[in-house]
Every structure is written in C-alpha cells, then in structure tokens.
C-alpha cells in the first residue's frame, strides 16, 4: 500500500480514537466537533501532499 494512503488513515484512526474515548459521556462528540473537523482537514491535506510527492518522485 502506498504511503499516501496508510499514513493519513493511521492519523485519522488515532485522532478518532481520542475523540471516541473522550466521548463516553452523553453528547461529548458535540464538544469535540471542531477538533474532529480539524482532524479531517489535516488528514485530507496530508493525503494530498503525500500523493503529490509520490507523483513527483515517479516523474523524476
């Protein structure tokens, strides 16, 4: 599997695990909503950057 796929996936799972673990109380996910959105933005940005880097390395 390519690094641009598994690295953001691992980061997303770790981030989601933290939010789920702290979400044991009722409606705790609503308090963490901004953090979850930020995590998704970071993961998507990391995926795009790694994909671009792999494309540039292949064309070299």
Task: Detail the topology: elements first, then pairings.
Layout: H1 3-21, H2 28-31, H3 33-59
> Helical residue percent?
over 70%
Structural class: mainly alpha
Percentage of residues in strands: under 5%
What is the mean pLDDT? 81
Question: Biggest sheet, open or closed, and with what strands and sense?
Answer: none
What is the strand tally? 0
Shape: elongated
**Helical region count?**
3
How far is the N terminus from the C terminus?
Answer: 21 Å
Name the helix and strand elements from N-terminus to C-terminus, one letter apiece: HHH
Q: Could you characterize the architecture of this molecule?
A:
This protein is 83% helix and 0% strand. The longest helix is centred in the C-terminal third of the chain and has 27 residues. The mean pLDDT is 81. The chain is mostly helical and 60 residues long. The protein has three helices and no strands. Helix 1 packs antiparallel against helix 3.
Features:
60 residues, 3 helices, elongated
Summed up:
83% of the residues lie in helices and 0% in strands.
